[in-house]
Write a structure and sequence with these properties.
The protein contains 2 helices and 2 strands, in the order H-E-E-H. It has helices at about 30-40, 195-205, and strands spanning about 175-180, 185-190. The protein has a two-stranded antiparallel sheet. With about 325 residues, the protein is mostly loops. It is elongated, with a radius of gyration of 25 Å. InterPro entries: 5peptide_repeat, Pentapeptide-BTB/POZ_domain.
Length: about 325
C-alpha cells in the first residue's frame, strides 16, 4: 500500500500506479508536474486517488494549472498550490485538500462532496454551482469566495473566515442557517419567504447571529416584517435595506450593525443597543426607540417621525438631515 516510487523521475508518458490499491503515486521535483497533469486531463486520464502528499516541499506546484473536468475523486492534494488553477466541473469527491492554496481558483460546478479543506485557503475562489455536500471547511479562509448556487447541505464551516463571501443573488435554496462561529458572515440558504421563520428558529436554538450578512442589492430587502427577534445578537450584521417593519427587536444587540435604508416602521427597538450602527436613510416612523443606546450611531437622513426616543442615548450620534 505504501509502495512509493522514490527517486524515479516522473515521465509524462508513464503512469505510476499501485496495482493493489489503485492509488496513483507521484514523485516530482519540478514545475513539470503542472504541465503533465494538465496534459493528462486533456487526454481524459483518470487521476482518481492520485497522491501528491509526498511531493518534495509538501506543496505540489499546480499554480494556474488547467484541470477543468479533472477526475480527482479521493485524491490526496495536501497543501498543494492550486492558486489560480482551473478546476471547473472537476470531480473532487472525498479528496483531501487540507491546507491547500486555492486562492482565486475556478471551481465552478465542481463536485466536492465530502472533500476536506481543513485550514485551506480559498480567498476569492469561485465555487459557483459547486456541490459542497458534507465538505469540511473547518478553519478555511473563504474570504471573498463566490458561493452562489452551491449545495452547502451538511457542509462544516465552523471556524472558517467568510468575510465578504458572495451568497446567492436570486432566491436562496431550501436549507438551514450555516453559522460561522468565529469570523465572517453567516450564510443563509433558504427561500427568502422563510427567512423570518428561520431566524426566529435560530434564536430559539440560542444561535448567535453576529456578523450575519443579508445585504444584496439584487436580492432586494430581506423580508423580516413582524419578525420576533427580541434579544437577538446582530453585532456587525449587514441588514442593508432589510424590511423590519413592526419587527420586535427589543433588547437586541446591534452594535456596529449596518441598516442603511432599512425599513423599521413601527418596529420595537426599546432598550436595543445600536452603538456605532449605520442607520443612514433608515425609516423609523412610529418606531419605539425608548431607552435605546444610539451612542455614535449614524442617523443622517434617517426618518424618525412619530418615533419614541424617550430615554434614548444620542450622545455623539450623527444626525445631519435627520427627519423628526
Amino acid at each position: 500500500m505504501n509502495d512509493i516510487l522514490v527517486g524515479i523521475p516522473w515521465n509524462k508518458d508513464w503512469k505510476y500506479e499501485n496495482r493493489r490499491t489503485g492509488v496513483v503515486i507521484i514523485e516530482q521535483t519540478t514545475d513539470d508536474i503542472r504541465d503533465t497533469l494538465s496534459e493528462a486531463v486533456a487526454k481524459n486520464v483518470r487521476l482518481g486517488q492520485i497522491d501528491l502528499d509526498g511531493v518534495p516541499g509538501w506543496r505540489a506546484p499546480l499554480h494556474n494549472a488547467r484541470l477543468d473536468g479533472a477526475m480527482l475523486a479521493d485524491a490526496t492534494l495536501y497543501a498543494a498550490d492550486l492558486s489560480g488553477a482551473l478546476l471547473k466541473k472537476a470531480d473532487l469527491r472525498a479528496s483531501r485538500l487540507d491546507e491547500a492554496n486555492l486562492a482565486a481558483a475556478r471551481l465552478d460546478g465542481a463536485n466536492m462532496a465530502g472533500a476536506s479543506f481543513l485550514k485551506a485557503t480559498l480567498t476569492d475562489a469561485v465555487l459557483r454551482g459547486a456541490d459542497l455536500n458534507g465538505a469540511n471547511f473547518y478553519g478555511a479562509d473563504l474570504k471573498g469566495a463566490d458561493l452562489r448556487d452551491c449545495n452547502l447541505k451538511g457542509a462544516l464551516l465552523d471556524g472558517a473566515n467568510l468575510d465578504g463571501a458572495i451568497r446567492n443573488d436570486n432566491g436562496w435554496k431550501a436549507g438551514s442557517a450555516i453559522k460561522n462561529r468565529h469570523t465572517g458572515a453567516v450564510i443563509l440558504t433558504m427561500q427568502s419567504d422563510k427567512l423570518a421563520d428561520e431566524l426566529q428558529k435560530a434564536l430559539l436554538e440560542k444561535k448567535n447571529l453576529q456578523h450575519l450578512d443579508l445585504s444584496s442589492a439584487q436580492r432586494g430587502a430581506a423580508p423580516l416584517a413582524n419578525a420576533s427577534l427580541a434579544g437577538a445578537s446582530f453585532v456587525d450584521a449587514d441588514l442593508t435595506g432589510a424590511d423590519l417593519t413592526c419587527a420586535d427587536l427589543s433588547d437586541a444587540d446591534m452594535r456596529g450593525a449596518i441598516l442603511i435604508g432599512a425599513l423599521l416602521k413601527g418596529a420595537n427597538l426599546s432598550r436595543a443597543c445600536l452603538r456605532s450602527a449605520d442607520l443612514t436613510q433608515a425609516v423609523f416612523v412610529g418606531a419605539d426607540l425608548s431607552g435605546a443606546d444610539l451612542d455614535g450611531a449614524r442617523l443622517e437622513q434617517a426618518k424618525l417621525r412619530g418615533a419614541d426616543l424617550a430615554g434614548a442615548n444620542l450622545r455623539d450620534a450623527k444626525v445631519g438631515g435627520m427627519e423628526r
